Amino acid sequence: MSKTAVLAVAGAAIGGAMFAFGFVAGTQPETVNAGPSRAMAPRAEVEAIVRDYLTANPEILIEMQTALETKHEEQQRVAQVDTIRAASDDIFNADYDGIVGNPEGNVTIVEFFDYNCGFCKRAMDDMDAMVENDPELRFVLKEFPILGPDSQRAHMVSMAFHRLAPESYAEFHRQLLGGSRATEDAAIAVAQGLGVDEAALRQEMMNPDIAAAFETTYDIANRLSITGTPSYVVGDEVVFGALGQAVLEEKIELIRATN
User: Fold this and answer.
1) Quick one: angle between helices 118-133 and 169-178, nearest 10?
2) CA of 224: how far to CAs of 75, 82, 83, 173, in Å?
3) Does the N terminus or the C terminus of the chain have fewer Cβ atoms within 10 A?
4) What residues form DSSP beta bridges with 143?
5) By 3-state DSSP, what share of the chain in percent is helix, strand and coil, each rounded to 5?
6) Do the beta carbons of residue 192 and residue 198 sit within 8 Å?
7) Could you tell me the mean pLDDT of each successive run of 10 residues in the chain, 259 residues long?
8) pTM of the prediction?
9) CA-angle at 175, arms to 172 and 179, nearest 5°
10) pLDDT on residue 109
11) Distances (CA, A) of 84 to 14, 89, 98, 100, 217
């Protein structure tokens, strides 16, 4: 447990104890009511008693921190489920997102990725293996540039490419993500190699629909508490990090088993 967490939990414990002793802020600043038939105890004395008890029984702090974390995680999970259901079309069926695998597949994984994310580069092999092994898997690629200006410009090219040549997007994605640093120039070079004209790309990059798409993606990510890449939406669950093919396949099978 971090020092900050310890202090927070200890403060909560002391505050709870003070309240249990009948202390009410603003009414008895220096004393604590020890009960209806007992004298008022000095606040400092009660604080010392609580601190001594917590020092002698530090496992209570761990239990409290665990309970707080569990509560927070459950609140976050409920909020994520609500967001996934409310924004289902934008998450799973946005026309600006690329698709790898079967466009009509019976299970969809949505990946939030950045072309300069090292973990995303490694996770690409997992994606390719999964769509090769599972003909009913639909893999949605949600462009989420968060790693600086190079990423932002590379993703602008990528979004423009998808609008101009959606049938070649999967190959564009693999080449750019599988290369070295993704920049605007690198992305344009990949696009040209796949037959898309640079002038057409640059014209499409100015399409306001691209900026609107990024704005929607950032908003959804914020509501889902997604701050890093790769992150996935599988069913009504958010999966953070490159946890590997086996973990994702397990979640896919769970969805199929419950549908």
Assistant:
1) 140
2) 12, 9, 7, 24
3) C
4) 113
5) 60, 10, 25
6) yes
7) 49 51 45 52 77 79 73 69 94 97 96 98 96 97 98 98 97 97 98 97 97 97 96 95 96 91
8) 0.74
9) 145
10) 97
11) 39, 9, 19, 21, 13
Residue with tokens 């609580």: 50
Alpha-carbon distance of 64 to 75, in angstroms, equals 17
**Which amino acid does the sequence have at 100?**
V
Do residues 43 and 10 touch, judged by C-beta distance below 8 A?
no
Upstream peptide bond of 135 is cis (omega within 30 degrees of 0): no
Buried b (16+ CB within 10 A) or exposed e, 29-61: eebbeeeeeeeebebeebeeebeeebeeeeeeb
Residue with tokens 């004393």: 31
- Which stretch of DSSP H or E encloses residue 112? strand 107-113
